[in-house]
Amino acid sequence: MAKVVFLVGSVYGNSTSMAEECAEFLRGQGHESEVFSSFSLAELQQDPEAVWLICTSTTGQGELPDNIYPLYQSLKDEFPLMPDRKYGVIALGDSSYDSFADAGRMLDEMLQELQAKRLGEVLLIDACETADPEGVALDWIKEWIIHLS
Ligand SMILES: Cc1cc2nc3c(=O)[nH]c(=O)nc-3n(C[C@H](O)[C@H](O)[C@H](O)COP(=O)(O)O)c2cc1C
Questions:
Q1: Ligand 1 centroid to 10 CA: how many Å?
Q2: Whole-angstrom distance, CA of residue 66 vs CA of residue 101
Q3: Which domain holds residue 25?
Q4: Rounded to 5 degrees, what angle do the CA atoms 41, 42, 45 make?
Q5: pLDDT of 63 over the 90 cut
Q6: Is 56 in the pocket of ligand 1 (CB under 6 A)?
Q7: Complex ipTM above 0.90?
Q8: Which runs of consecutive H residues, i.e. helices, occur in the chain?
Q9: pLDDT in tens, 17-55
Q10: Is residue 52 part of a domain?
Q11: Ligand 1: does its nearest atom lie under 6 Å from the Cβ of 58?
Q12: Residue 149 lies in a domain
């Protein structure tokens, strides 16, 4: 069974509640899963086995939420290659912005540069298209879970 840690970037709480529902689903399937809204790269690196599931909204004009920005900055500054790290990305946004879901895309690009291995495709959730982001994420994670076995 895998250990999945949700690394949440959220301003208004949508990403947090979505991550909590997905984590509960994973636990129900026998995986270990936790939701973190506050974390540092140094702390996360202490657990080399954990799969990171980035779950972030985009704010401002294509910016990262304040609580996940330090992780991005540390990855950029320290540039720790992590070929053994597995991760996934759920990116919330609103396609009426030119910078649709940029925070999730930025973190995905950074982790790709660091040679981490993405499991599955990035899930983009558009607030213009759904009023039920949790439902969209749950449908996705039911498929995504195959990458954990
Ligand atoms: C002030 C504000 C700025 C936003 N800026 C962007 C943006 O630049 N790009 C985008 O895709 N979505 C943007 N959004 C949409 C949010 O990402 C979306 O509403 C998301 O569901 C919020 O999730 P959260 O509650 O986890 O922060 C913005 C929303 C607000 C209220």
A1: 9
A2: 15
A3: 3-144
A4: 80
A5: yes
A6: no
A7: yes
A8: 14-28, 41-45, 69-78, 102-113, 133-144
A9: 999 999 999 999 999 999 999 999 999 999 999 999 999
A10: yes
A11: yes
A12: no
**Minimal CA–CA distance to 89: which of 31, 29, 9?**
9
CATH number, domain with residue 72: 3.40.50.360
Over residues 49-69, the mean pLDDT reads 98
Q: How far apart are CA 27 and CA 102, in angstroms?
A: 29
- Structural domain includes residue 91: yes
- Looking at residues 91-106, what average pLDDT do you find? 98
Tokens found for residue 113: 């540069």
Mean pLDDT of the chain: 97
Distance CA 110, CA 67 (A): 17
Q: Is 81 contained in some domain?
A: yes
pLDDT band per the 50, 70, 90 thresholds, residue 149: confident
- Tally of structural domains, the chain: 1
> Do strands 51-56 and 117-118 pair parallel, antiparallel, or not at all (unpaired)?
unpaired
Protein residue closest via CA to atom 22 of ligand 1: 57
Q: Which residues pair with residue 125 across a beta bridge?
A: 92
Q: How far apart are CA 86 and CA 27, in angstroms?
A: 18
